[in-house]
Amino acid sequence: MQPKSGRVGESPRRPDGPSKVRGEFAYSSDLRVDEMLWGATVRSPHPYARIVSIDQTAALALPGVHAVLTHEDVPGRKVYGLEIPDQPVLAIDVVRYWGEAVALVAADSPEHARRAAKLVGVEYEVLEPLTDPELALTDAAPRLHPDGNVTRYVKIRHGDQNARADVVVTGEYEVGMQDQAPLGPESGLAIPDGDGGVNLHLATQWLHIDRSQLADCLALPPEKVRLTMAGIGGAFGAREDLSMQAHACMLALRTGRPVKIAYSRPESFVGHVHRHPGKLRYEHGATRDGKLVYVKARVLLDGGAYASSSTAVIANACCFAAGPYECPNATIDGWVVYTNNPPCGAMRGFGSVQNCYAHEAQMDKLAAALGMDPVELRIRNAMRTGSRLVTGQVVEGPAPVAELLDRIRKFPLPLQGRGSGRGAGAAIDLTQMPGGVSNTTHGEGLRRGVGFAVGFKNVGYSEGFDDYSTARVRLSVVGGRPRAEVHTAAAEVGQGLVTVQSQIAATELGVSDVVVLEADTQVGSAGSSSASRQTYITGGAVKSASEAVRERVLTLARSELGRTEAARLEGDAVVSATGEVIVSLAMLLGNEVIEETREFRPRRTHRLDRDTGQADAHLQYAFAAHRAVVDVDVELGLVKVVELATAQDVGRAINPQAVEGQLEGGAAQGLGLAVMEEIQVKDGVIRNPSFTDYLLPTILDMPPLRMDVLELGDPHSPYGLKGVGEPPTISSGPAIVAAIRAATGRPITRVPVRPHDIVPT
Amino acid sequence: MRISCTVNGRPRVAEDVWEGESLLNVLREHLDLPGSKNACEQGECGSCSVYLNGQLVCACLVLGGQAQGREVVTVEGLASKEALHPVQEAFLEAGAVQCGFCTPGLIVATHDLLIRVPQPTTVEIREALAGNICRCTGYAKIIDAVHLAAKRLSVPLQGEGRGGGGVEL
Q1: d(CA A629, CA A671)
Q2: Which of A41, A294, A410, B91 has its CA 20 to 30 A from that of B17?
């Protein structure tokens, strides 16, 4: 039975849900066809080295091996990149990071492919890696790319550059490298079409940007590179760049056989970009009564070996560096640099995560210096509708920063007891203790702390990037009932976009049977599932195409039946303004198919001015605030996050259950960066590329989350909605760190927080 | 080598298995059962949780050969053709499924928990599912789903099993 598509504002079940719970949903790693080969990637064991020679003889001699390829075999453009094409499809003469792809192998089994990859003889001349981003800024560093090591410098000058303040606080903060760690490793299947082209089945956040990069690299016209979305096992930014796409296509085109590539977890850690580690130096000035006078910030992000989306990430890190506050004067300088560390790019929060740790720590520091309550200080300076960002842009639409803070402040606090909130005297619940069932404390040495943070970021693309999505909606009668089919290229990464698309079509067309077709490149671009933009932009396109279909149906009813009172569609029928049924859609349409395709384009944004960083650079802002309660074992430096509380304005909850899922899941990733997750890089080498050593929050680590979801309605967006996905990941971590500071009295200037940051050595 | 075992109640034979292959690989690559997922392949994430002779295991940590002559039940074996298992229903209803990559392992692990502890507390749920990593949901709705499934299953089911070991659900 086809589940009934719910309307906007309801929480129908996900259409892909039944197959997911049965284990029958086909993820990109599950694909297989007869006669397929397996690809494997030869990767650099050095962060920086010259390639002296590559010897394929031994690998090719292994039984079952069908091809060994190097950069010489890349048919077209040998480099790719989302913003700057600086990353070789396969390394050319030099490797710039540990794990960089050097050569490819195709063989008849994964085991043969892996063994052959080990037999590819690459001779390296090892070079001293550049691993310090500060050093990368200086002339003393080797130039890793022709234009130097600064990928982008962003300069913001807002207001009086010589402003003076009564009270000044300064601080330096550091954020470690976080991994998106989607559970589904990179994988896909390339099938040659027998006519020089290729069909690629894959998991990606943006089919069309992959296709345009692949067409260039493969020297094929775009129409000969057809992409179809397979099931995606999470993304969070990790699937914005190419990983195995070009490699699988090259091997398939060379061997004439389908080729599957599926990364292992260790390979996944080098197969995608990470969240930029950052160093942030801040100075805040305020009046004695707690009004911000100025913010000065110096932001340095380590972009690693290749640009990926670094230029956009540093823009965000700078545009939102002052936090969601009114700040009349700002001096912000941000650099993102090349090093021989792992490449960094998009991850949920996209530049706003790093700076939130800094500006929120500063606000607490300022409150302490002023003798003010930290929430009161934030409310006193809260951004509101009509406020100006440090980029000069006026904030339109709801900006309820003060209200969000007020709401989380008013949530009741959890009981302080011996775990589980059961109160004193109850049996000890070790799962609620720092150190958990490791049995490191029964309550001795515990201190509780409460911390607050608020953050914001842009929704949609910024700085003039053409943001649009395409939707095709088709209404026909199937088995005597009207059915709407929605076709877009948008990536369902888990967030529930497939449900949202069906809800929008069901709402606009008044039908209960909506089918969302497989995403592929047979329809126009949807843009990426990133920047919290898809419900807004692709949702907007589905709405627009559905409205166009509806207009044609109503016109049909008016012209063919002469029923001029036809006003809208409801309950699978055309109805009048008062809801009287005029004709069923099945009757009206008969064999007719009504199909419309629409592009949805929100208003334009503009590039930051090079010298002042002033511009209307962003489309929409989304805000969230968090309160964290922690218990810290101050003797061992262990932290248990006891509770999180959040308030977020989502504009309009298109699917309230999915919205909650975003708030909960996003907070967990924020918790991860605050106290658990870090890719540990030493001399350019990742020391912990596994789920054993890279610590992800488990169900024991994630505390209960109280939430208040506000629906204040943005007058400019479809249904008044706001992007939802990223804000939960921005302020959750900073609130936890604030709570740890409150519990311990230690400064805590680096995340993730480690035991030795809490226990002085 | 050849492995003969019972999978989801049916006798199955996997041919040409390399001695070093995991049960996960045997299921996914030889027996056309890709429901058990390969997220970490070192026993950390629980995405490949299956029953081996009635015991919950990470299929990635078990050699394929260890399944010889034994009974395996995977996520594909829990639902009937027509109806989802109540645990599966509960995960959908509670909104505990996002990308779904962890879901098969969580469904099997929850199924196992509810056999052992029919009405688990939240603490018991957290302990039982601590070996299953989910990157999307933050776990809140997974806890809701387990409570919901426990409520629905408070009348014990008959005729379904996790295979072998004399354990009945």
Answers
A1: 12
A2: A41
Determine whether the interchain pair A182/B101 forms a contact, defined as Cβ–Cβ distance below 8 Å.
yes
Per-residue confidence (pLDDT) for residue A256, from 0 to 100:
98
- The dihedral built from the CA positions of residue A305, A310, A311 and A314, taken in this order, carries a sign that is negative
CB A718 within 8 A of CB A599: no
- Pick out chain A residues at pLDDT < 70: 1-3, 417-426
pLDDT at residue B17 in the model: 95
Cα separation, A55 vs A57, in Å, equals: 6
Continuous segment of H or E residues that includes residue A730: helix A727-744
Q: How far apart are CA A539 and CA A559, in angstroms?
A: 30
Q: Do the Cβ atoms of A665 and B44 come within 8 Å?
A: no
CB contact under 8 A, B40 and A265: yes
Average pLDDT score, chain B: 93
Residue whose C-alpha is closest to residue A314's, from A276, A359, A360: A276
Which value does ipTM take for this structure?
0.97
Find the CB nearest A22 among B88, B127, B133.
B88
Which residue, A331, A458, A455, A431, is CA-closest to A641? Answer: A431
A431: closest CA of chain B, how far (Å):
7
Report the C-alpha gap between B12 and B10 in whole angstroms: 6
Say if the Cβ atoms of A23 and B75 lie within 8 Å: yes
Distance from CA of B1 to the nearest CA of A (A): 15
CB contact under 8 A, B101 and A234: yes
Confidence (pLDDT) at B165:
40
State residue A40 phi and psi, 5-degree precision.
-135, 155
- Report the distance separating Cα A686 and Cα A746, nearest Å: 29
B interface mutation test: which of A21, A204, A677, A690 has the most B CBs within 10 A? A21
> CB A72: neighbour CB atoms within 10 A?
9
- The amino acid present at A631, given as its one-letter code, is D
Give me the helices (H) in A430-533, please.
Answer: 497-509
Question: pLDDT class for B167, splitting at 50, 70, 90?
Answer: very low
* Nearest 10 degrees: Cα torsion A366, A329, A332, A373: 20
Q: Among all residues of chain B, which has the CA nearest to that of A492?
A: B99
- Point out the residue among A24, A111, A691 whose CB comes nearest to the CB of B40: A691
> Which residues of chain A are within 8 Å of residue B88 when distances are taken between CB atoms?
18, 21-22
Quick check: helix, strand or coil at residue A38?
strand
Write out chain B residues lying below 8 Å of A699, CB-based.
Answer: 125-126, 129-130, 132, 134, 139, 142-143
Q: Give pLDDT, residue A679.
A: 98
Run of H or E residues at A495: none
| Cα of A263 to nearest chain B Cα, Å | 10
Report how many Cβ contacts below 8 Å link chain A to chain B.
182
Burial class (CB within 10 angstroms; exposed 0-12, middle 13-18, buried 19+) of B30: middle
Do residues A692 and B169 lie in contact, with contact meaning Cβ atoms separated by under 8 Å? no
N residues, chain A: 761
Instruction: For A175-204, give the DSSP string.
Output: E-------SS-SEEEEEE-SSS-EEEEE--
Q: Among all residues of chain A, which has the CA nearest to that of B34?
A: A30
Residues of chain B with Cβ-Cβ distance to A736 below 8 Å are: none
CA nearest B91 in A: which residue? A21
Quote the pLDDT of residue B156: 56
Residue B154 pLDDT greater than 90, yes or no: no
Q: What is the DSSP letter of B73?
A: E
CA atoms within 13 A on the CB side of A480: 0
pLDDT band (50, 70, 90) for residue B118: very high
Omega within 30 of 0 (cis) for the link into A18: no
Cβ <8 Å between B88 and A692:
no
The strand pairing partners of A43, in sequence order, are A101
Query: Which stretches of A272-388 are DSSP H helices?
Result: 310-319, 352-370, 374-380
